[in-house]
Amino acid sequence: MKDIEIAKNMLVNEQKAIVIVKDGKVIFSSEGKGIKPIYTALNEFKSQLQGSSVADKVIGKAAAMICEHAGIKELSTKLISEKAVNVLKNTSIIFEYEKLVPYIKNRDQTGMCPIEKLSLEATNIDELLLKISKIIGC
User: Fold this and answer.
1) Which of left, alpha, beta for 109 (phi over 0: left; psi -120 to 50: alpha)?
2) pTM recorded for the entire structure
3) Which pLDDT score is estimated for 136?
4) CA angle in degrees (0–180, nearest 5) for 37-130-25
5) What are the chain's domains?
6) By the number of CB atoms within 10 A of the CB, which of 21, 62, 75, 85 ranks highest?
7) Structural Rg of the chain based on CA atoms
């Protein structure tokens, strides 16, 4: 079975928020919410992420930028923002999604997700990662 299929199956069957697979092995998985799981994966497994496959529930621009920075090979998501698609189109990442939305909403659905908003202001990945680290305290 391909890595992306393993990741997608585990995302659904084990109710994960994110699953990262490389060479048939799960590198990382989490039930966490928001940007924290992919940010944690980047910080803890950076060297192993190159060429891996990711299944994630939600991908906004910030998560797409992290995937590019990490060298992700393939990505599957249930929900993706237009800004995330714009980032991914300019990479070699093979990606698929179920639903495209103008932007990722905040948890109470009243406006834009704060991390999505933050990613619109960031000019590069280093600036984005620094801003995220200040927000989530990692």
Assistant:
1) left
2) 0.95
3) 83
4) 30
5) 3-136 (3.40.140.30)
6) 62
7) 14
